[in-house]
Structures are given as structure tokens and as C-alpha cells.
Amino acid sequence: MTHEEMLITNGIDALSGRALIPPLALSEAAAFLKGAPDDPAVTALLQSIWRTVEDPHLGLPMDLDPASVPQAGWAVVFHRDEPQATREALAPLIEHRRGQVADGTRVKVLEYRSGEGRAQWLARHGVGAGTVDPTKVPFYLLLVGGPEKIPFAFGHLLDVEYAVGLLQFDTAEEYARYAESIVRYERYESGEPVTSAARAKEAVYFATRHDYDRATQLSADSLVKPLANGAAERRGFRSLSLVQDEATKERLSRLFDPPEGTQPPAFLFTATHGVGFPPGHALQLAAQGALLCQDWSGFGALSPEHYFAAADLPASARVHGLIAFHFACYGGGTPSHDRFFHKPGMPPTAIADKPFLAALPKALLAHPGGGALAVIAHVERAWGYSIVTANAGPQLLPFENAIGRILSGQPVGHAMKDLNERYAALATSLSSLLEEVSFGATVSDFELVSSWAERNDAEGYVVLGDPAVQMRVDDLL
């Protein structure tokens, strides 16, 4: 059976060194789909707002620019039971945003209540699908407290119309550190002495590539190499590619903690396997989604020397002002149950005792020396197969546009526009295919499964951190 007849997924089991999901025959994957069609309520929602998100104004009034935080507005969303200590820790960031937005009605502190869906939550605030009113629900939304309190699915659907960021730490001190890092970075004035936020005007692309491993070959050859060829230079950035033998754990560590006299890059894109652990394992919360480096041979069980986890980020690291994008299985977080591979009529398989955000992005955001601005990463498995669309070759425009907007200094939440729109488009397209199948039409397994993989991949990208942060492009060195 050829690679083209198999579904390729990202992610390596830390205990066995084998793929979290072995390559799956397209016919087998198609059987999952035909027996378990998508939620019709979700499909109807996405179809109802698809035409709106295609518009450049994203449902905002025509005279408002979605790339302008003062115009589009900003809100923090707390679960109603979020501890007071967390609220107080983020107060400096809230006040900072109020100082940026002249219209006081466009900066809000909103509440989420357990069990609310997207439509119910918006309706409680007087907003319906297809309309973004920043005086009621601002465009930039920071969801605080993690997926146990505010579910991943709520954020995924909200992100189709809004610019959403997720934030979760274990202590109020970490929330305070992140808030202080953002305020300090954004208040830094051009011409002031170099601070911990000083960074090189450089974009680094880091990609592993293992022999006999179709997933990393796809991500290295069809994703990273094309992205690294010109996207940064067109915006005045230097570009550095670290692929295959150069993609070691030691080299990644030096990117976060460069030698004295050199400045760290402003942007980092990584494409690697993410490490996965079984539910209840002692390392799952600490190392799930860790970046598997080239140090691993491609065979056999893993050891901590093979992957870069939160524990590997040194206290001396210089990450203040960094924006990172991790293409890796579970690199952004892990749901409690498998959403994609379970037999019709059977409950989904548990993959974690509880849903959680990945530890490495959290460590980057709350670093004691000054946190990263934001980390874009993937919840659930990343789908290497989705990089190359059936019969059409690589489809990299959403990645290119996201990176281009970030390097142009646009808010990171708005930079995700194409990826979010792609999710809505692919979800509605997949629904149409499944409907055709239900009516007896012949749809090839290849077309059906490729549409499914692309939809799953697009759904999973999230911003960890404040979606309103912007790279200070003019101050880069």
C-alpha cells in the first residue's frame, strides 16, 4: 500500500517510540466517518457564519479595522468561579488595555458559566452569529482558566468569528508574571536602552526529519522548507533554517538561551513530532506535547534527552518578546477524550484524566526572566497529511499569511484569520460530502478522508496568550 493510500498523523508514544496512531488505511478511516457524521448543530452554525468570516471586516462594522485593537476591542473572560487571586494578578493587563482603547465600552471583563455553548454565551451578551459588536463582546478575547473550566470546543467555535487566546497557569504568581511581561513589552519606548525584550529581526524554522518517517518528511519538505524560502525576507527579516541534523535539542535550547552578545530571534516556527503519554502517567501533564528533536533515532522508546519539554527551559532563557508557532501533536494542549477515532455508538477513548494546556507554552509565557508574547500551537493531534491537499499539492497560504501578519506587526489573534476561516470552510465542505454519501453518492475514500484530516488540523490551532499582542517590528535589531 502506498503512502497516498494511508492517513499520516503526527505524534510519538513516549513509552514505545511508535506512532500514537499508526498509519491508517484510507478505507478504514472513511468507515469512521461514514458511521459517525458531524454534529448537525455545529455544521449549521458554521454554515450560517461562513459568508461573514469571508468578509475582510469579519462581521465588524465596516468602519472598524479588525487588526486595530483600539477599534475592535478587547475582553478577558473569566469562569465565574475563577479565584480572586487570578483576577487580581491580571488586573495590570486589564488596566493597560483600558489605557489603549479610548472607548471604554470596548474593554470588558466578561464571565463564562459552566455548560454554556458558544451561541448561548453570545446571546447572554446580546450578540448573535455573524455579528461582532465590540461594545457588547469585543473582537479580541482572552479566555482564562484552562479547558477544565472553559472547554476547548467553546474556544474553537468562538475563534471562527473572534480572535481568541487561551491562558492557564497553576499559580496566581505565573498569571502576574505574564501580565507584567506584556505590559512591560508594550510600554517599552523606541530608543530606550536594550532590555530583556530586545530581539533579533530574525525568523527561525526548526524541523526534524527522520528516515522512514512520512510525517516528519512531509512537515520538513512540504511545510518548513517552503515557508522558510522567502516569507521572512519579504518583510525585512533574516531567515534561518535548522532542518534534520541541525534540529537537535541542544540547538533548540540555544535558540531560547543564546550566548552572550547575540540576540534571540523574534519568531520561531517548529515542526516536529509531539510526545504523547497514556492517561495517568506521571509525565503526561509535564511533558505531553514536548518537541521531539533529531536526537531520537526514529526507532525505540524515548528518553527525556530526546525531547524538549518545559523542564528543559533554563532559568537563564531569554524569551521575553518571542512569538512561537509549534506544529506538533498536543503542542498546545490535550482534550480528555479522543474526538476523532472511535467507533460509532461507542464512547470516545479517554486520552487524559482531564483536558489541559501543554506545559512548554505555559513555561514560555510565564518565564521569570520575562515571558513570550504568545505561542501558537495545536490541540489534539496535528495532521501532517493535511499539509498536502488531495490532487492539489501543498496548500500553505494559511500558514504563510499567519506568519506574514505576525512579522508585519499585526495582532497575533488576527494573524490566525486564514487558519480559522479554513476550519469553517473545511467543516462545511466535509458536511456536504457526508450528506452526499448519506444520499448514496459515490465519494472516494481519498477525498473524504483528506477533507476530514484537513478539517481536524485547521480546528486545532490555538493562540496561547493574549490574542492582542503584537511584535514590535520597528524595534527589532
In words, what does this structure look like?
The protein is an alpha/beta fold and 477 residues long. The chain folds into 2 domains: 3-38 and 195-475; 40-187, Rossmann fold (3-Layer(aba) Sandwich), CATH 3.40.50. 34% of the residues lie in helices and 17% in strands. The chain contains 16 helices and 20 strands. The chain has helices at 26-35, 40-54, 69-72, 84-89, 91-100, 118-124, 152-158, 172-187, 214-228, 249-256, 284-287, 359-365, 397-407, 412-415, 417-438, 445-459; strands at 6-7, 12-13, 24-25, 74-79, 107-112, 140-144, 163-167, 200-207, 238-243, 265-271, 273-276, 291-292, 307-308, 323-327, 333-334, 356-357, 374-378, 388-389, 393-394, 461-465. Strand 6, helix 7 and strand 7 (163-167) form a beta-alpha-beta unit. Helix 5 (91-100) runs parallel beside helix 8 (172-187), helix 13 runs antiparallel to helix 15 and helix 15 (417-438) runs antiparallel to helix 16 (445-459). The termini are far apart.
